[in-house]
Write a structure and sequence with these properties.
By secondary structure, the protein is mostly helical. The chain has eleven helices and no strands.
């Protein structure tokens, strides 16, 4: 049979299936990190921090913001590189298309955080006489962060040598659940709480009155919308493997519980006083528990994209879009 023929299906794609729905959601909600975050908004963030009192934009407080952006930027770059083995391992065209779109989106996220550093962070540091640093500086990366991403890379690359259902579940748990669903969502919650009025009330009593950073939060809202699809895809694939009896749910428990100390080590690292680290750890633990409950229940519905990117019960994603995979 020709490699282009397939007796198992009539048409090439299943656009009405869940994964096909996620891909269509990505197409409908495409955004440009250079154009859709308006230059005027970037300039506003920069000017607000330039105009702020030096007691607010001091080196310690400003470094907390810089570290957050450095961690996000490096994480997006790492997963852009590390997802390639998953795209190779996928043997269904709908899965391959979705993972390809995800790699592209991770690259866009990398571009956004790079742009923000160049156009906002460095000019503000220079204006206030704070040391200008690179987002790749060792000072921003704690051991827990390195362990988490090293483990994710190893889990993805294992698929190239030993592609089994259990190893796929491990890879999904490392990347789509531990990194994107728990660490990233917790980080976004912290950013929204510290630098806008759209997050939770977890700032400390003596937190400095930092200006709202609207361009940063708008960029994050676009990223969160993308990652709602990514998380939903990973949860769906893990749930399929568990429901089919190919993999024991203990594999999921083991990976996520193993990574929770690393996640806690990242989100509780700062002591600058913007947000309460213990509240972030509690938030991350709650996210992890709820994700495990859904994917280990074969009858549970994967929440739609907007639900998956809610920061808390009262605030959801800011990019309205059709729900994916309602079949």
């Amino acid at each position: 049979m020709s490699r282009y023929a397939d007796d198992d299906r009539d048409l090439r794609l299943d656009p009405d299936g869940r994964v096909g729905g996620y891909f269509r959601h990505a197409v409908y909600n495409h955004w440009d990190p250079y154009e859709d975050i308006e230059q005027s908004l970037i300039e506003q963030d920069r000017q607000r921090m330039i105009d702020a009192d030096e007691e607010i934009i001091d080196e310690d407080g400003f470094d907390d913001l810089r570290q957050s952006i450095a961690l996000f930027g490096a994480g997006e770059e790492a997963v852009t590189e590390d997802l390639a083995p998953l795209a190779i391992a996928m043997d269904d065209i709908d899965d391959q298309m979705f993972v390809s779109s995800q790699i592209y989106e991770e690259a866009k996220h990398t571009a956004f955080f790079d742009r923000y550093w160049r156009e906002v962070i460095n000019p503000v540091a220079k204006h206030h006489g704070i040391e200008v640093t690179d987002p790749t500086d060792d000072r921003y990366f704690m051991p827990a962060y390195e362990r988490l991403f090293d483990d994710t890379e190893a889990a993805m690359h294992e698929l190239l040598e030993n592609d089994t259902p259990e190893n796929r579940v491990r890879a999904f748990c490392h990347y789509h659940l531990a990194v994107e669903s728990v660490l990233a969502q917790t980080g976004y919650y912290g950013l929204a709480s510290g630098f806008s009025d759209s997050g939770g009330d977890i700032t400390t009593a003596d937190a400095p009155d930092f200006p709202d950073l609207e361009a940063l939060i708008e960029g994050v809202s676009y990223i969160r919308s993308d990652e709602g699809r990514h998380v939903g895809f990973g949860m769906y694939k893990v749930q399929q493997h568990l429901a089919g009896g190919e993999v024991d749910e203990q594999v999921v428990q083991d990976v996520l519980q193993e990574q929770m100390p690393n996640i806690a080590g990242v989100v509780s690292y700062s002591d600058s006083g913007f947000v309460d680290p213990s509240a972030l750890v509690e938030y991350a633990s709650d996210k992890l528990t709820r994700r495990i409950e859904i994917i280990t229940d074969a009858e549970a519905d994967i929440p739609d994209v907007e639900e998956l990117v809610k920061l808390d019960d009262g605030e959801g994603g800011t990019t309205p879009s059709p729900a994916a995979g309602d079949d």
